[in-house]
Amino acid sequence: MDREQPKRRLWSWWYLLFILLCGVSLWPPFFNRIEPTLIGIPFFYWFQLALILAGAVVTAVVYFATEE
């Protein structure tokens, strides 16, 4: 009845993807412009939406890569 659970690692190199994503989103000079537009939407807005989608993809990748 006393099952020994495997020890979980606290750190993985996959977590650096989160730091990269946060760095891009916290550096406004990178995306503070109007051109190029996408379907009439300025770059500033559609890039932020793309970051949300990229964040979901990165979260899924890190989750499945670090799952034991």
Automatic annotation (TrEMBL):
Protein keywords: Membrane, Transmembrane, Transmembrane helix
Top-level division of the source organism's lineage: Bacteria
Pfam families, per database record: DUF3311
Residue ranges of the TM segments: 12-31, 43-65
InterPro entries the UniProt entry points to: DUF3311 (IPR021741)
Name under which the protein is recorded: DUF3311 domain-containing protein
Species: Pseudolabrys taiwanensis
Phylogenetic placement of the source organism: Bacteria, Pseudomonadati, Pseudomonadota, Alphaproteobacteria, Hyphomicrobiales
